[in-house]
Each structure stands twice: as C-alpha cells, then as structure tokens.
Amino acid sequence: MTGLIKDYQTRDLVLSVLLLPLTFSAPVFYSLDAAPVFLKIIGAVNPLTYQVVFVRDLMGGTVNWVALAVTVVCLLAISVIGVLSTSRMRRLSFEG
User: Fold this and answer.
1) Structural domains counted in the chain
2) Is residue 93 part of a domain?
3) d(CA 14, CA 31)
4) Is residue 53 situated within a structural domain?
5) Which of 41, 59, 60, 70 is placed for a possible disulfide with 50 were both Cys, Cβ 3.0 to 4.6 Å?
6) Which residues contact 39 (CB under 8 A, 6 or more apart)?
C-alpha cells in the first residue's frame, strides 16, 4: 500500500496511523483477558497478537502450535504480497 503513495510524509503518516492501533490491540503491554470485547475482537484478527502469544508461551516453556501456525501463514501471505507488489514498483525512488 505504501508503494502507491508518492509523498514520503503521507507514507509516514499512513504507517503511523495503521501501526499504532495494531500495536495497542495486541497483548504487548497488557493481557487481553481483562480487555473490552471490541478490543478482544480486534486482537483476534491482529497477527501481532499471535506472535506475542507464541513468544510468551515459548519463554514459558511451551509451544503454542496455533499461534505458530497463524504467524507462519501470515508471514508467507505477506511475503508473497510483498514480492508481487514490489516487482511492479518503480526501480528508483525520486525522493531527494
């Protein structure tokens, strides 16, 4: 998506606006057990949630296979999308 935006200031704004809610809807700083329902729903579709759960469980000595599977599937999907989208972009950036 940011490949379509030509101005670096707009691109930075879009990334900030998108990444901040994703960070705060994942259980990075708190547990989702006591969170409101709407935050639990957003956290359930947020790939960062599964990454955090996997790392926390791994540090606790267990492997959460569901969280690992969701993380790997999201990684593969984003990798394919990234390769396909960047192969069609301009080769050089004209931002001075």
Assistant:
1) 1
2) no
3) 27
4) yes
5) 70
6) 25, 32
Residues of the chain with pLDDT under 50: 92, 96
Instruction: For residue 81, give its domain range.
Output: 8-86
Nearest Cα to 50, choosing from 78, 32, 31, 71?
71
pTM listed for this prediction = 0.70
For the stretch 76-93, pLDDT in tens is 999 998 888 777 666 545
* Amino acid letter, residue 64: N
92 assigned to some structural domain = no
Report in angstroms the alpha-carbon separations of 40 from 28, 79, 83.
13, 26, 31
Token pair, residue 80, equals: 């394919």
Return the exposure string of 20-40: e unless at least 16 CB atoms fall within 10 Å of the residue's CB, then b: eeeebbbbeeeebeeeeeebe
Domain-located, residue 49: yes
